[in-house]
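hey so u asked for the seq, here:
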Amino acid sequence: MPSLDRFAEPSKKGKVIRSAYDSESFESDITIHVDGLVGSATISPSGRDIALASPDGLAIIDLDSPYNPPRRLRSYGLPWLVTDVQWSPFAARDYWIVSTANHCALVWNLNQREDSTNGAIEHSLQGHTRAITDINFSAHHPDLLSTCSVDGSVHSWDLRRPRQPVLTYCDWFAGATQVKYSRQDPHVIASSHDRWLHVWDDRRASEPLKSINAHKTKIYGLDWNRVKPTALSTCSLDKTIKFWDYSKEVNEPDHVIHTEFPVWRARHTPFGWGMLAMPQNEPGDLYLYDRKRLDETPTGEVTKPVHIFPGHAPQKAKEFLWRTRGGISEDRTDDREFQLVSWGTDNELRLQCLDPEVLSDVGYVKGGELQRL
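ran it, structure tokens below
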């Protein structure tokens, strides 16, 4: 059962939530403790619920009712630690959550009765011969997702026909650590294998569209640019975050962020020019960088973050997510608000509000015009 450190008055816990603007948790800094061997976390498309995945199954926390015990879905004795869990990003498939179970991927259906034969597990995707390291839903088609594994393969699955992969990409020399669909091009997907970045096209899956020897040590994070179709970033334990454009002939990064720590994950923020990095080691703080200022740092020197979010010290951060409310109007006025959500090895889920000054430091002002980043 979660225990709450800070929240609103208990008398308000029964308040009916009609929209994101009725959510008191969105405007509060909150810490929730949840027991269990949780391997990863994911957020629902609406931003209201968090799913925590462990060998026991899923614990789903309603962030607007954090006093209530989480809804628990059992995996019925599967012993493996969870390396990744992903909630479908599509509102039309908001009942699907996929988690890893060694060499299998489990597709959970939140609308399925738990007392049915397989419980809430609708599909078990079995195509890898070794442990799955990452899962990613397509940004373009609600029934497609990909998995990658230590066996070196990347499988694409169609959940309308889940018995076997519909497409496979393979690096014959190194296991895969990450897989990510392009945010702009429905045919393009990227994967990382040891120090190498591969970009694939599903219309020619036999060999990579582009291969880049990107880092000195293993890559642990991939992220596509939110606007430019051919731009993406990688991060590694070599203490760098690199920005690439695979359409260029020369395999040199456009920019490099040098950090003081091995980088486990680094992703573009959904606002401004931000890049948020998560260290591999303790303490579990999160570091926000401004991509527009990278040219100001002398080559090879450590890049100074514009803000450090206090995390899970003395433990490590395991995952970070974003809650969003508001939207973008037809006249391109950007009225969105954001809240940072993180999970750590201290078994705490932290919700942190963002000061307007922090948003401004990476080029975002609420109510301003939407920028082409």
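DSSP finds one helix and 31 strands in the chain. Helices lie at 356-361.
lmk if thats what u needed
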